[in-house]
Amino acid sequence: MSEQENAKWYVVHTYSGYENKVKANIEKLVDNRNMRDRILEVIVPLEDEVEIKDGKKKVVQRKVFPGYVLLKMIMDDDTWYVVRNTRGVTSFVGPGSKPVPLTDDEVYDMGIESYVQTIDISEGDTVSVISGPFAESTGIVKEVNINKRTIVVMLSIFGRETPVELDFTQVRLLA
Q1: CA atoms lying within 13 Å on the CB side of residue 24
Q2: Cα 4 from chain centroid?
Q3: For residue 65, what is the DSSP state?
């Protein structure tokens, strides 16, 4: 088993409203200290929410866990120190100062790993849309945006090839 397979998901508490800043700060520190092999992923889970203002529908992205950032990392003294001392991080979630990793069931229930599993999709791949208004459509991936966790798929709509931006969780790679 490789060392990266030992990585677990941890949760850090942040000042409310600073989640994206903390994510950016941690990613910058990981790059600067060459720790990409030990801090593998930093995410702020988002979900789309429809707001109606002045009779107009607007889709906005809302944080699923305000005040928290999720990290997939190998816990050791160095990674603990880097994350714990990142500006905006108040603490790891766990009793006292001991970080406790999420269980496999918690990770599954939160849908965190579903983000990660679909990253193997790349430009030119054929995908099937599994949810949303374009469900059961098939198209070619034109663009992959890992930071936004979206892909642009060319779908045939009314006989025309149309680019449609979809979330990673809305598509499945066709063999």
Answers
A1: 4
A2: 18
A3: S
* pTM of the full structure: 0.60
pLDDT(161) > 80: yes
Q: For residues 35-46, give the mean pLDDT.
A: 89
Quickly tell me which residue has 């790891």 as its tokens.
92
Cβ partners under 8 Å of residue 148, min gap 6: none
Residue 70's alpha-carbon distances to 8, 55, 112, 147, 170, in angstroms, are: 10, 36, 9, 14, 21
SS3 5: helix
Q: Which ranges constitute the DSSP H helices of 12-138? A: 19-32, 77-84, 104-110, 112-117
Give the pair of three-digit tokens for residue 134. Answer: 């374009």
Long-range contacts for 136-144 (Cβ within 8 Å, ≥24 apart)?
A: 138/174, 139/164
